[in-house]
Amino acid sequence: MTGRKRAEQLPLVLPSAESTGRDDFLEAPSNAVALAAVEAPRGLPNGLTVLVGPPGSGKTHLAHIWAARTGALWQPAGTLTERLEALVQPGAPDRIVIDDAHLLAGGAGEEALFHLVNHLRGRGELLMTADRPVRDWGLRLPDLLSRLSAAAHQPLGEPEDALLAAVLVKLFTDRQVRIDPGLIDYILPRMERSLDAARSLVAELDLRALQLQKKITAAMVREALSKDLDTDPGPDAS
Predict the structure, then answer these.
(1) What share of the chain is helix, strand, coil (3-state, %, to 5)?
(2) By CB neighbour count within 10 A (0-12 exposed, 13-18 middle, 19+ buried), where does 186 fall?
(3) With 4 labelled, which of 56, 72, 90, 233 sits at a CA distance of 20 to 30 A?
(4) What does the DSSP assignment read for 46-107?
């Protein structure tokens, strides 16, 4: 037996795949209207819809739900210009998702998006996600601005406490981590109000607990939150 302290164990960290299926989506007042829109049996109004919400509000998850339900093609905004020719060919998919479509504003992507909107008009559907309404994207093409301004805008608000609590519990459960329910109440008023923040926090706490071979404590929560807030986490009490 030696007097040396046991070194912190370095766990094998496996990537945690984000669940984007319908059964994994937690409905709440902040997202109920948008959820109904992507599940509407009659399709998107005029074949063109924008899901609008802050980062981590669930709009990308909703877009995945719609894509899975309709067989839509997932088209990253960053490669739209180079893939445009294939997207407008005969036989190309007539339902398309563009995540973070606002990133196309101010560059060559505007023209590509304009051609895609015109191609799908009357024959297909286009679902886009964005962190702001079309009028605030900074579009330079007046015709594109006109087309997209007429799209149905489905807003998603910041998640409320009940939704964040349910998400935190599910994220910990998915990682097979048992956590004191009181810690959920401790986390809620102190964390950033987004689902992305919840995912990052749970991942950080899971990693720290594995390193220390201890259950998650309030001290670990303070330490994890202090990294984002850049404040002193306080004394390390277990």
Answers:
(1) 50, 10, 40
(2) middle
(3) 233
(4) GGEEEEE--TTSSHHHHHHHHHHHHT-EEEEGGGHHHHHHHHTSTT--SEEEEETGGGGTTS
Mean pLDDT of the chain: 84
pLDDT tens-digit readout, 133-166: 999 999 999 999 999 999 999 999 877 788 788 8
Measured in degrees and rounded to the nearest 5, phi and psi for residue 130 equal -160, 160
End-to-end CA distance of the chain: 26
CA dihedral 236, 15, 131, 184 (to 10 degrees): -40
pLDDT tens digits along 56-93: 788 999 999 999 999 999 999 999 999 999 999 999 99
Q: Is 176 left (phi over 0), alpha (psi -120 to 50) or beta?
A: left
**What pLDDT digit, counting tens, does each position of 7-52 carry?**
333 333 333 445 566 667 777 788 888 999 999 999 999 999 999 9
